[in-house]
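In the laboratory, one determines a bound structure by crystallizing the protein with its ligand and collecting diffraction data. In a computational setting the workflow is compressed into a single prediction: the sequence and the ligand go in, and a structural description comes out. We illustrate the idea with NAP.
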Amino acid sequence: MLPAVARGHRGWFHPCARLSVRMSSTGIDRKGILAERVAVVTGSTSGIGFAIARRLAQDGAHVVISSRKQQNVDRAAAQLQREGLSVAGIVCHVGKAEDRERLVATALEHCGGVDFLVCCAGVNPLVGSTLGTSEQIWDKILNVNVKSPALLLSQLLPYMEKRKGAVTLVSSIAAYFPRMELGVYNVSKTALLALTRTLALELAPKDIRVNCLVPGVIKTDFSKVSHGNESLLKYLRECLQMQRIGEPEDCAGVVSFLCSPDASYITGENIAVAGFSSRL
Ligand code: NAP
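The predicted complex, in structure-token form:
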């Protein structure tokens, strides 16, 4: 049986509530900078993906949220709909071809096309040494973190053309500063930097921009696993120039900007949101 789509009370989407206002570089207030655009965000029922989905919807977009578990999809969609945002949800494990197909079909059926894809879903088993990692774990991490964004994009591409759209991949500061205990995860997140540049090149003729968000340590369930140890968190805080751990919302505005016309000449870039300068 197909998982149910989380619907708004007036059919699929709530009417757009354009809540947020961004000051443009000209200093003029602009409401709903993403109005009437359609965004698909993977891994978006909690953490960074949820904050991004909420922000894109606050900025006027219709947003399709998704993750592996129906109850998470229902809870997240209901919460955003209660806030008056135009959001619908569907189950999608990004590593499963049939789930990706259903996500694409659902977005098309209800929105007719897609402008923005944000690939936030990621897997982070603490695997330790890269050379000690089994082939099965290698495959799982590369499948979810690296292959799935490219495969989902290839499925969506015919419906993103001629819409001046944008894609945002989500890497990690571990791509710049690998950590011993994260092993293959470091490798997968570094591969996403290369994927960003390659896709930016390939999709420029189609007027689709591709950029990459590079989060530092952000307070989510995910980072509880990878940085859960209090003394490690304290150490990290002290090392950061900004002396605080990031919040998911710290990542959300950057992605909205990257989708917006304000970023119309930005492609192939990695943008770190990490509380310190990642430049060497
Ligand atoms: P999170 O709070 O644990 O949220 C993960 C979200 O992804 C959930 O909605 C989860 O819902 C969904 N998900 C997990 N596996 C999935 C899969 N295979 N297919 C589809 N959805 C899936 O994680 P987060 O911290 O926001 O992390 C999001 C992304 O940011 C990841 O790519 C991670 O590598 C990256 N990142 C995070 C940090 C950090 O410090 N938090 C730092 C650098 C990079 P379900 O359980 O329902 O699937």
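Confidence is low (pLDDT under 50) at residues 14-29. Keep in mind that any predicted model is a hypothesis to be tested, not a measurement.
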